[in-house]
Automatic annotation (TrEMBL):
Self-incompatibility (SI) is the inherited ability of a flowering plant to prevent self-fertilization by discriminating between self and non-self pollen during pollination. In many species, self-incompatibility is controlled by the single, multiallelic locus S. Belongs to the RNase T2 family. The gene is S. Gene3D superfamilies: Ribonuclease T2-like (3.90.730.10). GO terms for biological process: RNA catabolic process. It comes from Prunus avium (Cherry). The active site is at residues 62, 115, 119. Keywords: Disulfide bond, Endonuclease, Glycoprotein, Hydrolase, Lyase, Nuclease, Signal. It comes from the Eukaryota. This is S-RNase.
């Protein structure tokens, strides 16, 4: 009897551990590959300005985020291996300095560590650290958003605005899938002196491409856009 009890206890415990492991290892459906427009990052930071007062005029990587269709905020901060810079080859590190710079405070490895801890760990079963950063860099290289937009005459401009579909169409034409745009509103302190028409326009901030579970094949993004519906978008 005692033995039965202890083996039941063992099973319960084993199951509990297994359950915890499954929960913390994170499950996801697809990836969001998020690129940002550094001037917008710096524009909306008013308390602590960007370390480089002349932000890059290139879309750069924000992160590669394993994502869940049914629960948009998950997964994040999963259990997994700690970030180690030495797991990235010197060659990869120098590539990432171009594609994935910390445009806000200039501390690239700390930015990579933050993205790995919050997101990368949740897909470690698919991409280990080296693969996670390598694949992200390849994604950045395979579609040059800055150039796609420039080819469609969408270039930074102080007053011109575009519609959501003006910006999405050329990207869609090249990638053959639907991306997602995210915008930010300029801080109030910067818009007071501007004419009303300009003050209300949102700034293009991020372009998201979606990839399948293996991070190999592009798929349509179908989340709600992060830009105000039907509102003019400015790109500065
Ligand atoms: C998505 O999140 C929900 C709620 O946290 C979870 O039950 C489900 O297993 C997740 N699905 C996938 C595929 O990650
Ligand atoms: C954009 O990135 C490319 C590749 O690293 C670089 O050659 C170019 O100078 C960058 N352009 C700007 C405007 O920063
Ligand atoms: C992307 O395109 C921009 C604009 O044409 C160019 O400055 C940049 O060097 C390109 N980046 C890469 C990695 O080729
Ligand atoms: C931009 O246009 C040039 C010239 O037509 C073309 O060679 C290049 O492939 C285009 N770039 C992209 C990213 O579509
Ligand atoms: C997005 O696509 C996935 C996969 O086809 C589907 O499961 C999900 O319900 C879709 N979500 C929305 C909001 O359409």
């Amino acid at each position: 009897m005692g033995m039965l009890k202890s083996s039941v206890a063992f099973l319960v415990l084993a199951f509990a551990f297994f359950f915890c492991y499954v929960m913390s290892s994170g499950s996801y459906d697809y990836f969001q590959f998020v690129q940002q427009w550094p001037p917008t990052n710096c524009r909306v930071r008013i308390k602590r300005p960007c370390s480089n007062p002349r932000p890059l005029q290139n879309f750069t990587i924000h992160g590669l985020w394993p994502s869940n269709y049914s629960n948009p905020t998950m997964p994040s901060n999963c259990a997994g291996s700690e970030f180690k810079e030495r797991k990235l080859s010197p060659k990869l590190r120098s590539k990432l300095k171009r594609s994935w710079p910390d445009v806000e405070s200039g501390n690239d490895p700390r930015f990579w560590e933050g993205e790995w801890s919050k997101h990368g760990k949740c897909s470690e079963q698919t991409l280990n650290q080296m693969q996670y950063f390598q694949r992200s860099h390849e994604m950045w290289q395979s579609f040059n958003i800055t150039e796609i937009l420039r080819n469609a005459s969408i270039v930074p401009h102080p007053t011109q605005t575009w519609t959501y579909s003006d910006i999405v169409s050329p990207i869609k034409a090249v990638t053959q899938t639907t991306p997602l745009l995210r915008c930010k509103f300029p801080p109030k302190s910067q818009t007071k002196s501007q004419p009303k028409s300009q003050a209300t326009s949102q700034l293009l901030h991020e372009v998201v491409l979606c990839y399948d579970y293996d991070a190999l094949r592009l798929i349509d993004c179908n989340r709600t856009a992060g830009c105000g519906n039907q509102q003019a978008i400015s790109f500065q």
